[in-house]
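User: Hey, my collaborator sent me this sequence without any context and asked if I could get a structure. I don't really work with proteins. Can you help?
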Amino acid sequence: MSGYLNIILRLTIWLLLTSDLSVENIAIGIVISLILPHTQRSIGSLRDWLQALGKIVMAIPIAYIEAIEMIFRPHQAEDIEIERVPPNRSSGLVFLDIFLITFTPKTIVCKYHQDGGYEVHRVKRRRKL
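Assistant: No problem. I've predicted the 3D structure and written it out in structure-token form, which is a compact way to encode the shape of the chain:
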């Protein structure tokens, strides 16, 4: 089941990159998503995929709230933090994690560490003393 989710993820990325929903383009996207190399290591459980997709759906309103907040109350402070990742994440789940972090306006992933962490750049409001 997770293999199908990986193909759907690749097809979705293809359609977002080409922004063309014609039958020919969808067929090309399916072929490309099938011929791209698949890793034989952990492909992630269905539960992990559904959790990641649920987090992305929840990130949409959060992104709008953060964008409006940054317009009316500018953020001048920033820092880089390390966020831990569950071990043995599949490449598709790592991509969704990075997408989720980068989707919100206050955060962006600077680097992925193979030992299980993301360097995340965050903007914050300064605390008044």
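In plain terms: The CA atoms of residues 24 and 30 lie 10 Å apart. You can pass these tokens on to your collaborator as they are.
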